[in-house]
What we know:
By secondary structure, the protein is mainly alpha-helical. Helices cover 72% and strands 5% of the residues.
Amino acid sequence: MVKDQSIKGRQTQDRQTRDRQTRRKQANILLHICRAISEAGAPAHRLESYMLVISEKFKLEASFFAMPTAVLASIGEDEYSQRSYMIKTDPNDINLATLHTINEVINELESDVIDLDTALKAIKDITSKPAEYPDWLFALCFGLVAGGFTTLFSGSWNDVLAASFLGLLTGLITIYSKPYKYLSQLLTPLAAMIVGFSAITISHYWQTIDHFLVSLAGLIILVPGLGITIAMRELSTGHLVSGSSRMAGAVTTLFLLSFGLALGYLIAQSIYGETAVHKMANVPAWFNYLALVVTALCFSVLFKARFADTFWIFLSIGLAFAGSSLIGLWMEQPFKSLGAVLLVSIAGNIYSRISSNPASVMHIPGIILLVPGSIGFNSLSAMYTNDTMTGVQAAFNAIIIAVAISVGLLVGNLIVPPKKDL
């Protein structure tokens, strides 16, 4: 009798030990996922919702508090046995492939295709995997996107060539400053200063470009239009700390870009004197569509998307462009942005429901054409030249467009709820 009780006691103890080990592994996976999707660019509302869904699958009581540079997590079997964790994250560029791969790992774990140890190893491998695309391709995409946006800003052939060169220059500065801590901290004003100086220099010797336009296009990848939009989305969904800090970071980036550009102009004009703006004939209409195709391909690289997702990125950007153009025949901003984003939001959510993939694969590339970063940049540039009223009006327009995009995404979720929160 005593022997049976002893055996049962050991079995119970062994089972409790296994349960504790399982809970530790599950908590470890949750923390690694938190870090990975935060550093892949997931906003607070998506990260917190997605993590809660996974916690429920693991039958854990958990709560998460996401910010752009950290995630606070409390995880346990119930609210009285939770442990608290603070994960310091390094905010990086959008990485759609990471979001997609983590989603696949979680799907396989839920379906019992893989166990906890395999899932944890897979997630660690994702975060340590080297870049899929080479640095020279990233730099080239900076230049091609700059040229593509010049056509959207009604530029000429000469503007497209000059902007492509300046975008390539920005890409090279961005890539080769990363290994150096203090140089990378100066990336934004340094790149803007070099681009501003180069634009005036090109305009002085080759007097057939609009140096304001090519400067903006050359820096377009660094302009935080997406950051402003995500911040507004976070604020509108009640994530006030994350939204406020992200908005502060985006506005600071705009100030740094504007300051660097003004400094570059000042240095160049002190050497060459005043340089007039030269407007040439716009590129033909057919080139806009070619530029759209090239831009979509480049965003696949810049957002580190899988090659298999390229079609969906094309579709998303095409919907945004077509929706904005058609709705613009009847309505002005911000309502045409609202309508275009609504189309992108619904399409992305349908894609998510059909494929079980993250809706972000379509949402982020689609809204990138509509974000108000260039308007905000023009706002501060106008203020630097003492044109205060124009600057204030442009800033107001940028905020209203960001609000319209946020509302469009929310309404899209209401009409067609996404299958995945990621």
